[in-house]
Amino acid sequence: MENWTRGHWEASKIDFPKSVFYLYTPMCGTCLVASKMVEVIAAMKTDLPIGKADLNYVEDLAIDYEIESVPCLLIQEGGKVVHKIYAFHSVPYLLEKLS
Length: 99
Hints:
This protein has helices spanning 6-15, 29-44, 59-64, 91-98; strands spanning 2-3, 18-24, 50-54, 72-77, 80-85. It is an alpha/beta fold.
């Protein structure tokens, strides 16, 4: 899973039918657990573009997408955000959301 800028995210919305952007902060304990889950998903779904970013460095994205908290997973299909996930229940739960 690569570190993305806002530019990478916006490009992924144009270049791919589906992509995922994981937003976190390094001081968030819940984000540490969520990060491991997203890493597992990235290893399982190698054909799905998945990027991550420390929300502290993409604050404008947080405002524009009305991000309420971290961790947050943005899932886009066809250039539009179709899911904004804050509760990372389990890897199977996240895989279901990606289907």
